[in-house]
Amino acid sequence: MKSFNIGTILCAVIISLASANGVAEEQNKDRTGTPDGSSTCTQCHTGGGFNPQMEIIIEDETGTEVDAFIPGADYTLTVTLSSIPFPTVFGFQATALFDDLSNAGSFSDPGTGVQIEIVNNASIMNRHVVEHSNPGFVGNFEVQWTAPMDESDVTFYASGVTANGNNESSGDKATNIQRTLSPQMPDHVWENALENVRLGTYPDQWQLYGSSPTTIDRVRLIDLQGQIILDQRASAIPRQGLLPGMYIIHVQAGNTSKTFKVMHI
Fold it and tell me: What is the per-residue DSSP string for 118-185?
């Protein structure tokens, strides 16, 4: 396994609710508090009597919350906000970056009240952000995050605002949290039912050995962009029609998994 000392930063931050459709869309600004100097909304949203609580939840495709990620795999990122007393509205903004502040992974399939934007100004270059499309009456915001094809930790930074809905920053309250996940790389992610599974390479297919086909619940072939090319239970993975390049084969049995890197020429 290669060794990298690159942090990936995912910052989920509530923006000024005076920008009802999101500050990235309306003002072309990043308000996630990234290391290149973008501010956070905690600087403005003060004085309210709310008690905001925030959580970042990352779940795999089975709905299981994870504490590590598989490069190239898809996850549901949920930012939750709550408060007693209950506020009128919530909102958020988020980004995912490498340590060099380039975009890390990708966002897609935004949930209700969520949108994906690009911020590009004198200070921030071509940054993908996720934010509310309208302030939410319930503090749950979902988006799909495809993990980068990289062996680096991912740190999730979050800040949230619970707001009184007066279209001003006064009378609101903000909070911040963070969470870090490490990657699960090939040769380090299997156990139990899959620990003896091996992969054979043939001109027309890849073949899994060492476990009966009924043991394997799911086999996925994933390209370097994180796109799922094949999703099946069968232990033979056809190579016909694939473009030359590197792929990932992710095998799942129950709550265990194993990952192979493969090259198609």
Answer: EE-SSS--SEEEEEESS-BSSSEEEEEEEPPSS---EEEEEEEEEE-SSSSSTTBEEEEEEEEEEE--
In the chain, the amino acid numbered 128 is H
Phi, psi torsion values for 28, nearest 5 degrees: 55, 45
> Is the pLDDT confidence value at 72 over 60?
yes
Contacts of 102 by beta carbon, 8 Å cutoff, 6+ apart: none
CA within 13 Å, CB half, 132: 26
Contact assessment for residue 159 and residue 42, using Cβ atoms and an 8 Å cutoff: yes
Q: Is 234 helix (H, G, I), strand (E, B) or coil?
A: coil
Asked if residues 235 and 166 have their Cβ atoms less than 8 Å apart, the reply is no
pTM of the full structure: 0.64
Please give the Cα distance from 200 to 206 (Å, whole number). 6
Query: Tens of pLDDT along 6-42?
Result: 344 444 444 444 456 776 788 888 777 777 866 665 5
pLDDT exceeds 50 at position 218: yes
Nearest residue to 52 via CA among 159, 169, 157: 159
Give the whole-number percent of the chain exceeding pLDDT 90. 14
Angle at 139 between CA 136 and CA 141, to 5 degrees: 80
Tokens for 8? 């990936």
* Cβ(60)–Cβ(189) below 8 Å: no
pLDDT at 227 over 60: yes
Q: Token pair of 215, please?
A: 């043991």
80-105 residue pLDDT tens: 888 888 877 887 888 888 888 888 78
